[in-house]
Amino acid sequence: MSRADLVVVANRLPVDRVEGPDGEPTWRRSPGGLVTALEQVMQNLDGAWVGWGGKPDLDVEPFEFDGTVLVPVPLSRDDLRDYYEGFSNGTIWPLYHDVIAAPVYKRSWWDAYVRVNRRFAEAAAKHVQDGGFVWVQDYQLQLVPQMLRELRPDVTIGYFHHIPFPAYSLFAQLPWRRQVLEGLLGADVIGFQRVEDAGNFQRSIRRLLHYPTKGETVTVPTIEDAARTVISRSYPISIDANHFLELAQRPDIIARAQSIREQLGAEKLMLGVDRLDYTKGIRHRLKAYGEMLADGRITGKDATLVQIASPSRPGVEAYQELRDEIEMSVARINGDYSTVETTAIRYLHQGYPREEMVALYLAADVMLVTALRDGMNLVAKEYVAVRADNTGVLVLSEFAGAADELGSALLVNPHDIEGTKDILSRSLQMPVAEQARRMKTMRKKVFDNDVVKWGQRFLDDMETSRARRNDA
Ligand code: F6P
């Protein structure tokens, strides 16, 4: 198999292993946000993708899928417990999301993280061609850039961080904080969602490593004594907006949206679509909604809340507790405020295909994206992309990265329950002229800065970095 110009390294491959009709396992493109973002970027390149195949102990040879070479990295059950559920999602995830849940610092998890990051780095080193590009994705793989640089000093390395990068005062808790920064600084280009994230990262570099930073660059000393310049800046990720718009114009999806509306038994549909994760603010949202029903500010006839909470990381304790709390709260609210004809909250602990999501976006009068912390939140952008008639209201948390671009949404502090209730009332009553004014501005942002642009900006900076290195 020939080596690739561009190798993407991510925790997961962009495919799921499923059983075909004959019982034989086959691969199917998975619906995740990262996959959606990168499929466009990869299409025009001779690319490979290194990642875990989604099942424990799955050890299969690299294979081609839709023009991309996929390189499965095997992870054992112990790797998954200690590297994925442990260090990635029990340490880094809560720490980087402002300690909404308490991070656990366990040395055996760190050891697994180092071991597994090395495995990903070795796979990437094997599959990238001389002088090629490797683009590492996200917090599960922060050590890969430096490990890869040691194995393949000829390649240009990018790293994109999809989740928030925390303030120094929080990051400083991490017992392995210096190793993580050094791991990341193996990259030539380090991308973040928000300007604030890039600022937090640079502050940590100055405080912990004492390397100089200037504007969007970090100067990293090397033993060969010619210092290396690393670009570190924000590249807000986006969606394939035109693809979502095309789906929204399909007659079957429009019909599905109408049928959802007809079955509601309420005048307005409010929609929440999240992974079942404590960062998403689902509990706070339910509290505000429940209180509005209790106060008589809304009735089941006025509105219904459809809350999709797709299953996520069920092996991590904090997610199990969250699920119990949410389900208890939904049951209580429905017990108190539903009627034979109306349902206060329709809670769905399931994942749905993109087509069904688009139908729901089209049916929803109000989209609730009230995360306590979120790197970007692509659901907000997807809702905006499909609302071609400029109706609909987006309620958006200030603490989601999307708020930097979508300032015309109704911005909310989800911790402020009274404030949230006021915003929810306002969203239900917003005149169509105001909806249109806000939606137009947001749609322009989403269509002007789609995922193709995002990928291009990042790859352009990698090109610049390679050219600078070749000139030196
Ligand atoms: O943005 C964070 C992220 O890890 C994405 O890369 C991924 O699509 C999503 O969360 C789901 O996480 P997991 O791979 O742990 O199911």
UniProtKB/TrEMBL annotation:
- Top-rank taxon: Bacteria
What GO terms in the biological process aspect are recorded for it?
trehalose biosynthetic process
Gene3D superfamilies from the entry?
Glycogen Phosphorylase B (3.40.50.2000)
Which InterPro entries does this one have?
Glyco_trans_20
GO MF annotation, one: alpha,alpha-trehalose-phosphate synthase (UDP-forming) activity
Write down the CDD domains for this protein, in alphabetical order: GT20_TPS (cd03788)
- Name the family: Belongs to the glycosyltransferase 20 family.
Please identify the protein, giving its name as recorded: Trehalose-6-phosphate synthase
**In which organism is this protein found?**
Microbacterium faecale
